[in-house]
Amino acid sequence: MRVFTKKDLLKYNGKNGRPAYIAYEGLVYNVTESFLWKDGNHQALHKAGQDLTEALKSAPHGKEFLKKFPVVGILKE
């Protein structure tokens, strides 16, 4: 499984044809195919290419929604 640093993850922001990846609790998910992540933006609040572990604590949904997205790697601290 690929290991991402936070700097690596920034490259996957969903802009200019790049995939949209987000990290949560040490796993990196590919959200590119989700209509909720169009152009790497989610609900005008979050951007792809980031660790959203803290942000998801205040989200109106739990982490269960991430199960539908493929895990593409792990986030190295």
UniProtKB/TrEMBL annotation:
Gene3D superfamilies: Cytochrome b5-like heme/steroid binding domain. SMART domains: Cyt-b5 (SM01117). Residues 4-76 form the Cytochrome b5 heme-binding domain. It comes from the Bacteria. InterPro entries: Cyt_B5-like_heme/steroid-bd (IPR001199), Cyt_B5-like_heme/steroid_sf (IPR036400). This is Cytochrome B5.
